[in-house]
Amino acid sequence: MLPLKSAVLSWILAVNCFMLMNLGDSTRVAQEEVDIMEQIATTMGATHWKFNGESCQIEAVRVTTDLPSWFETDVVCNCSIGNDTACHIVAITLKGINLPGVLPPELVKLPYIQKVDFAYNYLSGSIPTEWASTQLNSISVLVNRLSGVIPKELGNITSLTYINLEGNRFSGIIPDELGKLINLKALILSSNQLEGGLPVSLSGLVNLADFRISDNNLSGPIPDFIEKWKQLTKLELHATGLEGPIPLSISLLNMLTDLRISDIKGPMHEFPPLISMTDLERLVLRNCNLSGVIPGYIWKLKTIQTLDVSFNKLIGTIPDDISARSMLKFVFLSGNLLSGDIPASILKNGINVDLSYNNFTWQGPEQPACRQNTNYYINLYKSSAVAGTLKQSEMQNKERRRVGVRRRGLWDKFMTYTQIKSGDGRIIRFY
Ligand SMILES: *[C@@H]1O[C@H](CO)[C@@H](O)[C@H](O)[C@H]1NC(C)=O
Ligand SMILES: *[C@@H]1O[C@H](CO)[C@@H](O)[C@H](O)[C@H]1NC(C)=O
Ligand SMILES: *[C@@H]1O[C@H](CO)[C@@H](O)[C@H](O)[C@H]1NC(C)=O
Ligand SMILES: *[C@@H]1O[C@H](CO)[C@@H](O)[C@H](O)[C@H]1NC(C)=O
Ligand SMILES: *[C@@H]1O[C@H](CO)[C@@H](O)[C@H](O)[C@H]1NC(C)=O
Ligand SMILES: *[C@@H]1O[C@H](CO)[C@@H](O)[C@H](O)[C@H]1NC(C)=O
């Protein structure tokens, strides 16, 4: 029974192939490309591979282990590209199929390849320098076991718009040459072991919309030149190793919807000027050595859903005129020096509020934060200097934990989360 079952499991029939060619015509994938696809599959560690050049479909790929339900295999062909009548492979997705091999240098032999997605495998080695001569526009090797330096030759693939190297073991410095990738819209390097500073050359990436470099071992300041990334909508700098202060020039990034910075060393400084970021949805400035007050405009942002400024030295009060139309769902102010009353306006249906470890006024049973039968989740543990503020039913299970290393180091040991068990037993966890 068992051998049969595993034999069945190890055969994957591709069902999600995307065909752009006319079946039944004489057009088909050029035979060289069919052969090269087989070499590629072998290099990547598939033990069996069957690709149909007539239909541009992967018919079988065999690996040795069981697969997650969300695996994805796909080859895309385009029959109107190139100077001949054949169809050509333009994209390959081999995702979540536990491939144990290496990235295929043979990719260069597919003259029209544009996109590769090899996420969630066990691929090792580095990025083949041969890829420098391709016209790729998208590379994802998210969560693998790739190591070594990021090859400077990557900077030669100026057609690239998307690079995702997150969740690998790349080390060494970020090569200057990446600054040549002027078409780049996303550069995602989080959860590696990169060192050194952000090279100045990156300031030339003026089309960048998404930059993520969390969980690395970088050094030096968060550079001023991030202001050049005017198209940026997402900036994620959790536990990068980079130092504060957060540069004032960040104020120019008015397209940001998602700004997350945490765990920076460096001098105490005031809340950065974010008034131009009118579309912010998620703002995380956690453990950034911020002092002074939270500017009033932050509470008035129409689109903001998550506000996490915990573990700073912020003072002042929460305004009592937060709009009822506010989209706020998570407000984490834990570990500051905030004071005053907790206004009713922050307590809305379904909102999660963590006010623990502050200097708020003691909340008696008659005050909004402590009313019974409420439909929000509020943590008041040690939120005031007066003893007895613990709201037992909600707070007793609050814990702060270190995150274990999840799948192959995607999360770093420095990242922490807080877990709160609310009155109704719901577990609230946030990073
Ligand atoms: C196929 O390639 C041609 C030529 O580059 C391009 O114009 C067309 O959009 C491509 N087709 C698809 C579906 O990507
Ligand atoms: C067609 O394209 C191939 C590969 O890109 C190239 O080697 C060949 O010289 C081209 N042929 C013509 C007639 O342009
Ligand atoms: C990369 O581009 C530079 C010029 O910008 C060139 O000298 C070098 O040979 C190229 N490297 C590769 C591997 O193509
Ligand atoms: C981080 O980099 C420093 C040098 O800047 C090095 O001494 C240290 O060992 C590195 N830490 C890790 C975890 O790689
Ligand atoms: C925060 O700022 C203070 C004062 O500038 C400084 O003494 C302290 O070391 C800083 N904290 C960190 C974690 O850098
Ligand atoms: C806490 O608030 C009280 C009055 O509300 C104030 O006297 C005290 O200085 C505050 N403590 C800190 C550490 O800010």
UniProtKB/TrEMBL annotation:
Pfam families in the record: LRR_1 (PF00560), LRR_8 (PF13855)
Q: Give the location in the cell.
A: Membrane
- For this UniProt entry, what's an example GO CC term? membrane
How would you describe this protein's topology in the membrane? Single-pass type I membrane protein
Gene3D superfamilies the UniProt entry points to: Ribonuclease Inhibitor
Q: Which domain of life is it from?
A: Eukaryota
Q: Where is the signal peptide?
A: 1-26
InterPro entries hit by this protein: Leu-rich_rpt, LRR_dom_sf, LRR_Rcpt-Like_S/T_Kinase
Q: Which GO terms describe its molecular function?
A: protein serine/threonine kinase activity
UniProt name for this protein: Uncharacterized protein
